[in-house]
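Thread title: Can someone regenerate the structure for this chain?

I was given the following input by a collaborator and told the matching structure tokens would be attached. They weren't. Posting the sequence so someone can regenerate them.
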Amino acid sequence: MVKIAPSLLACDFSILKEEVDKVRESGADILHFDVMDGQFVPNISIGLPILESLRKVTDMTIDTHLMIENPEQMIDLFCEAGSDMVSVHYEATPHIHRAIQQIKSHDKLAGVVVNPGTPIELTAQILQDVDFVLIMTVNPGFGGQSFIETTLDKIEWLNEYRQEHGLNFEIEVDGGINETTSAQCIDKGADILVAGSYYFKHDDYKQPVLKLKGD
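Best answer:
Regenerated them for you:
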């Protein structure tokens, strides 16, 4: 069954606890927590204090997506602050294996993220070590962007690779997700759908979960 991970970047931070409560009530599975440093991506977003506060008010799985340069400098802090899943960009570090092992040393689920312009085949040497792969289906840094169709080929390649090699990492997708693109991603093998603008624009939060899952 596909999992839905609303991106808190699109929520109303003035009522964060209420938003998180609605996410749980909607039937969503994971809270997606985007961290941007203004260097790796042209934007700055939420960080450690928000994560620490969030951990105090929910027991939902928190998926921390580090869109930052030199992620090794911050991995320990985000793991200790309450993340359950932590992912780092393949493009952000020359030592991706080291970063993945650093996450795993905290008994957290470790993921590698790939930008739209990065060939997915470059991740082959790390796939046996990760718990999930996050495919960016837009260029990271801003919400509300349109889905990049060519990223569907990456999902398909990953799905075929894990079947051929007997691996069990999950495939997560992030960017431009709606009821149309979610169906395309699921058809190619996606397991986790991150939705920000599409999810939080609905007054009834149960509706986007049902639509994204195809119910």
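Residues 151-165 form the longest helix (15 residues).
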